[in-house]
Amino acid sequence: MSACTLSFIDPVQPYLLQTTARYYKYPVYQRGIQEFFGFCTYGPEKADEDGYITFRMVPDVGIQTLIACDQSEFSIITLEPDVEAMFVKLKPETEYFGIRFIPGIVGYAQKFLQQPVYAEEIHRYFLEEKGFSQRCRIFQRVFEEFLGSSAEHNLNSQVPSIYAMVSKTNGDIRIDELSRHLGYSQRYMSKMIKAGFGMSPKTLCKYIKFQKSLEYLGCRSDMDITEVSNALGYYDQSHFVKYFKEFTGVTPKNYVSMVRQDRLYQKIENVGRQDMDYYHRETFTPREWKNLFLAE
Question: How high is the mean pLDDT in each 10-residue block of the chain (296 residues)?
C-alpha cells in the first residue's frame, strides 16, 4: 500500500492562552480526536464588566469543544471552524476541559455534539471523575460509542489525503492542483472539502497558512516577519500583514511582542503520550489513515 505524508499543523488559540496561567494538552491523533486540553481561567479581577473572561477566537480548521467542569453548572461551548473574529465568554476561576477534533470530520463532530444523550453521559461521568486523564478516557470512550453506532461511519477516503496535501504545502496550493493530484473535478473536490471541513477549499488553504504563521511567529525566534511571509508564499509582506491583522486584530510585529511579553507558548504543557508513534511518524498507509480519523 502507498503511504500518505502526514503533516499535521499544531494549531493554537493565542487569546485563549491569555485566559489562564497554565494550559496542558494531551496529544491523541487517532479515532477522530487530535488532542485533549485543559486550563483554569483567571479570577474575577481579570473579568470584563459583564463578569466574564472573554477571548477572541482566531480562524481554525477543526471543531473544538470546551466543557465547563463546574459542579453547579454543566455547559458545553462549541467553537466551530470557519469562524472569524468570534468572541467567546468564559466563567472566571473555572476549570475547562477541551477537545480538539481532527480536521476533516466536521459532520461527525457536529452530530455527536448535537445529541443530548451523549452530553448527559459525559456530564454524569465528569461529576464522578475529577482527574484530567480520567476525563480524557471517558470522553474518548463515549465518542467511540457514537462512531460505532453511527449509520454514516464511512469517511470519504480522500479527506485525509486532502488534509495531508494542504498541510504539507502550508496551505500554498490551488484547488486545480488538488484536483489534478487526486483525479477529481474541481466541483466535486469543493463538495468533498465543504462536507469534511465545513469550509471552501480557498478558506481551508487560507486558514492552514494562517495557523502556520502563528506557529512560526510564536516558536521560531530565528525568523523575522519577511522570512515568515516568504516561507508561506504570501505575495508580499504587506499582503501577509493585511491577512494577519484581519484574523487577529494585531499586526505580526505586535503579535510577536504579545507572545514574548505574556510568555504564551511557555504556558503549554504536553502531558501523556509525547513519545507516541502517531506523534512522530511521517507516513501512514490508507488503513492507518482510517484508524486515525475514525474508529472501525
Answer: 51 92 88 91 94 93 88 81 79 94 86 90 84 91 84 61 84 89 88 89 92 88 87 89 93 94 90 51 48 52
**Residues β-bridged to residue 196:** none
Q: How far apart are CA 248 and CA 136, in angstroms?
A: 30
Name the amino acid, one letter, at 151: A
Instruction: Work out the end-to-end distance of the chain between its first and last CA atoms, rounded to an integer number of angstroms.
Output: 19
Yes or no: say if 79 and 64 are a contact pair by the CB < 8 Å rule: yes
How far, in Å, are 172, 223, 292 from residue 283 at the CA level?
A: 20, 28, 12
Measured distance CA(32)–CA(29) in Å, rounded: 7
Specify burial of residue 96 (Cβ count, 10 A radius: 0-12, 13-18, 19+). buried
Nearest-angstrom CA–CA distance, 50 and 63: 27
With contact defined as beta carbons under 8 Å apart, do 250 and 213 qualify? Answer: no
Asked whether the beta carbons of 24 and 38 are under 8 A apart, the reply is yes
**Burial class of residue 289 (count of CB atoms within 10 Å of its CB; 0-12, 13-18, 19+):** buried
Rounded distance between C-alpha atoms, residue 171 and residue 207, angstroms:
8
For the stretch 254-259, contacts whose Cβ atoms lie closer than 8 Å and that sit 24 or more positions apart, written own/partner, are: 255/14, 255/214, 255/217, 256/217, 256/218, 256/225, 258/14, 259/14, 259/217, 259/218
Cα(270)–Cα(37) distance, integer angstroms? 9
